[in-house]
Design goal:
Length: 225
């Protein structure tokens, strides 16, 4: 990773929280500045909050896995992140028994790179309307799901664009750290993202880790823009 100019974080003391923000105001202040923000009303008219659950994803993907070999092959091309679990595939993660679900924490994520499954999921959410109209729309979405006590380790991403991540259920604590070259010029921050919140962050420059902090299962979905 090449060094970055620390101007992006030098004056950032907290993660801003906004609502009713227009695409124009979002673009001028947050979209490409590297300044993290939580948008409180970015999931208006979504049905994902009422529909998405472990059981929903398990049924959806089990139906796909149980179908043709071509369907299984499509999903195997998508990325899967087991984090600190024993699961080797999304198939294993979404077919764990009730005993495994309750006996110890679990957390995993995957990219939804299959267009047929994406069509089903996107009936329940849409591209956040505060994003700039000229920004890109990635065909790949990311889903992260898990229980209290686990999450993603501290890391920085290597993706093409900034990201948004919508908290559908549960609560997740985000810990943000500036890159090493900015350690003495910028601050570390923490913030809890709640259901209905959408956090927007350039994960290519902010080091970040997450931890589920709610009794309810945490479900988030996001993409690049």
């Amino acid at each position: 990773r090449p060094p970055v100019d620390c101007d992006f974080c030098r004056d950032v003391r907290q993660v801003d929280i906004v609502q009713h923000i227009s695409p124009q105001d979002f673009e001028s202040t947050y979209a490409y500045s590297g300044r993290p923000v939580i948008v409180k009303d970015g999931q208006a008219n979504w049905t994902a909050t009422d529909v998405f659950s472990y059981e929903f994803f398990s049924e959806l993907y089990t139906k796909e896995f149980g179908g043709s070999s071509s369907a299984r092959s499509r999903h195997q091309r998508c990325q899967f992140f087991p984090y600190k679990t024993e699961f080797r595939s999304l198939d294993q993660a979404l077919t764990m028994g009730e005993r495994r679900k309750s006996e110890r924490p679990w957390y995993f994520g995957w990219s939804n790179c299959d267009s047929q499954t994406a069509d089903v999921l996107r009936r329940h959410y849409s591209r956040p309307d505060f994003l700039p109209e000229r920004s890109e729309s990635s065909p790949t979405d990311w889903i992260f799901m898990g229980t209290s006590g686990l999450g993603a380790h501290m890391h920085v991403d290597h993706v093409s664009l900034p990201s948004w991540q919508a908290q559908i259920r549960g609560e997740k604590l985000w810990s943000l750290e500036p890159p090493p070259e900015c350690f003495y010029q910028c601050q570390s921050m923490e913030i809890t993202v709640q259901p209905g919140d959408t956090i927007v962050l350039d994960t290519n420059i902010w080091y970040h880790k997450t931890s589920v902090v709610s009794e309810d299962v945490s479900i988030t979905i996001g993409s690049e823009y």
